[in-house]
Amino acid sequence: MTTIIQCQQLQKKFRGTEAVKNVSFAIEENTITGLIGHNGAGKTTLLNLIAGYTHPTAGTVRVFDQTPFNNLYVSSNTMFINDDMNFPTSLTLHELLQMGATFYPNWNYPLSEDLLRYFNLKPGTAYTRLSTGMKSTFRAIFAIAARTPLTLFDEPTTGMDASVRNDFTRLLLKDYIEFPRTIVLSSHHLSEVEHVLEDVLILKNGEVLMHTSLDSLREYAVGMSGPKSEVEALGAGREILFQQKLGTEGLYQVVENHFQQEEIETAKQKGVTISGVSAEDVSTYLIQPKNGGIEDVYNRSE
């Protein structure tokens, strides 16, 4: 497969603060990758580097095998959607769609017009007069209709109602199947976009914790619940992603999944239940501080 994005030891500092720290990864052509992390994880800075909006402090970023900063080829083949995206204030939504059709060669004009009607956006309205959620919806329409070889979404569902968020992800997947391209989609919550993703890139404090397929993330960890002593013995020597007390004698732990079938059978005999852990929970445990759950906060304060 063709590599669309290649980062090697990529760094970005702002006034001495490292927003992106020695990041290395590659994203292949015609894939949908979820960029997952909390606020301040470096998601927006990384997307700005990929889009060519800013240049690295150190390391390299290559897009279409070119340096993206101030690169006309990269900018004309990339759509970067974020809250700061601006449109000409003198144009209506209908005129903005017409403008997009003249700039992007793969533009699907009938689809853009149909989506404007579907989401009840008035063609004669100015973009600046839209609510936050409607602006997000229009930006999503614009990005999907453009069908650029690379599309970057930075928290695209801000302000959208739940039903509109669902429509957006369904629309994104349907159009991707019809017209494959490379898409990077950032989000705080994996569950909101999980059903459209193939790969996941997890950031924490500016560093890549994991870049893997969604299927691999789903199998990365298991949960163990049962008597505290037995759970601790079974989890000994394994990375503990999360743990929480269950009553006075019980314990729940989430650990890396390296169990053999015979270990699982032995655990059952000792009263320990081993269960799957959702991809959303695994990503949450990976990026959150290892301070336990909210119950542990109360337990420590008592």
Mind telling me the CATH superfamily name of the largest domain?
P-loop containing nucleotide triphosphate hydrolases
Uncertain regions: pLDDT < 50 for 5+ in a row?
Answer: none
How is the biggest beta sheet arranged? 6 strands, mixed
Strand content: 25-35%
What is the arithmetic mean of pLDDT?
92
Described by the principal axes of the CA atoms, the overall outline is: elongated
Fraction of residues in helix: 25-40%
Q: Number of folding domains? A: 2
CATH architecture of the largest domain: 3-Layer(aba) Sandwich
Neighbour order of strands in the largest sheet: 5-6-7-3-8-9
Q: If you had to describe this structure to a student in words, what would you say it looks like?
A:
Helices cover 36% and strands 29% of the residues. The protein is of the alpha/beta class. The chain folds into two domains: 3-217, Rossmann fold, CATH 3.40.50.300; 219-301, Alpha-Beta Plaits. It has a six-stranded mixed beta sheet with strand order 5-6-7-3-8-9, sandwiched between helices. Strands 11-12-10-13 form a four-stranded antiparallel beta sheet, with helices on both faces. A three-stranded antiparallel beta sheet has the order 2-1-4, with helices on one face. Strand 8 and strand 9 form a beta hairpin. The longest helix is centred in the middle third of the chain and has 17 residues, at 162-178. 37% of the residues are buried. One of its GO terms (molecular function) is ATP binding.
